[in-house]
Amino acid sequence: MTDLAFLENTNRLTVAGLERSIFLGFHPREKARAQKVVFTLSVYVRAGSFDDDVANTFDYDALAAELDKVLSQGHFALQESILEALARSLLAYPDVLAVELSSRKPEAYPDAQYAQCDLFRRKHV
């Protein structure tokens, strides 16, 4: 069983439903055109001082900015690769202790709602 004590006194900050049109996949049909991918990005950060000062918390804008930075690297064959790269980028922030990321491809299969990848990574200190 995983020890989750490191999450004590943390806040989970989430931006859900970020839609991007990107080239993602290894099938010829996926390489031919961009497809919609929906991301949900969460970071676990040290709890702030709770004094309503934005300087004491993580900036939500960084989630979308880091995603766009990763996506600008070009075509990815796998959702897993995008999420791994994004996890490394977000875990580089000093206050981020862990990340929970997901990507969803609603156009992946005509007879399914979506194909989804979920990832959880923590900082090892």
Describe the overall structure.
By secondary structure, the chain is an alpha+beta fold. It has a single domain (5-122), classed as GTP Cyclohydrolase I, domain 2 (2-Layer Sandwich). The chain has helices at residues 28-32, 61-71, 79-91; strands spanning 10-22, 35-46, 96-105, 115-122. A 4-stranded antiparallel sheet has the order 1-2-3-4, covered by helices on one side. The longest helix has 13 residues, at 79-91. The chain is elongated. The mean pLDDT is 87.
Q: Work out the count of structural domains.
A: 1
Give me the secondary-structure category. alpha+beta
Task: Tell me the radius of gyration.
Answer: 16 Å
**Average of pLDDT:** 87
What overall form do the CA principal axes indicate? elongated
- The CATH homologous superfamily is named GTP cyclohydrolase I, C-terminal domain/NADPH-dependent 7-cyano-7-deazaguanine reductase, N-terminal domain
CATH topology: GTP Cyclohydrolase I, domain 2
User: What is the CATH architecture descriptor?
Assistant: 2-Layer Sandwich
CATH class: Alpha Beta
Q: How many beta-strand elements?
A: 4
Tell me the strand order in the biggest sheet: 1-2-3-4
Percent range for β-strand residues: 25-35%
The total count of helices amounts to 3
- The percent of residues in helical segments reads 10-25%
Major pleated sheet:
4 strands, antiparallel
* Unreliable stretches: none
Order of helices and strands: EHEHHEE
| Terminal CA distance | 19 Å
